[in-house]
Amino acid sequence: MACGRGGLFRGVARINGEPASGLRIDAAWLSARGLMVAQQARSDAHGVFAVTLPRAGWWAVSVRQPHGVLTGPNGVQGPLERVTTLWIAVDEPPGE
Fold first, then answer.
1. What's the CATH number where 70 sits?
2. Which one of 7, 29, 53, 64 is most buried, by most CB atoms within 10 A?
3. Tell me: the pLDDT tens digits for 25-54?
4. Domain residues for 87?
């Protein structure tokens, strides 16, 4: 998928085909130093979310669903999430 710099990306978060509300959405830009989280959003009552992609390059838009608790090898428990990521190439607008 591709769009122009400054474009608005809209999506619908779904779980088992049904819209999912209240999920955290991260939009991260891939820089020379790694992924830099630039925006966070939440899906609305219909699963809809929107993020703006303000600079050219590769963006990862991730939807995070809480999915229980995981116990590590040292016995410490932490949150477990299901994460779905869509990579988007953002281009410079024509003439720039």
1. 2.60.40
2. 53
3. 999 999 888 888 889 999 999 999 999 998
4. 2-91
